[in-house]
Design goal:
This protein is of the alpha+beta class. The protein contains 5 helices and 3 strands, in the order H-H-E-H-H-E-E-H. It has a 3-stranded antiparallel beta sheet with strand order 1-3-2. Strand 2 and strand 3 form a beta hairpin.
Length: about 100
Amino acid sequence: MKDDKKIEMPDTTLLYDLSDFFKLMGDSTRIQLLWALEENEMCVGDLASLLNMTKSAVSHQLKVLRSAKLVKAEKRGKNVFYALSDHHVRTILEMALEHVNE
């Protein structure tokens, strides 16, 4: 490293938050849920059927994803529909897939 160039690091707390984000994304079940929701909003029953999982397991993982603000929920009648929280989540998924396909 050159002496005349100073590297600006993000705040340590922010880097820990980033690390936690990647830990969440590092779970294959959560990636499958996110990918399914990248295509279309879905309810727990549809996700469970699609991924061959129990509704309980899907609900648990969706709770984790919601608390991390990666998915959002909207209640319609008796059903709750889940979708990606914003375009950043979709972009991260698409870029990561592109990277592993190289």
